[in-house]
Amino acid sequence: MAKKKGKGAQQKQARSLVKQAEYDVSLAPELLERARRDIKREKYLTPFKVHQKYNVSLSTARKLLKALEEEGLIVKFTPNRRSPIYVPKEKLPKLTFQRI
Question: Which CATH code for domain 28-100?
Answer without folding.
Answer: 1.10.10.10
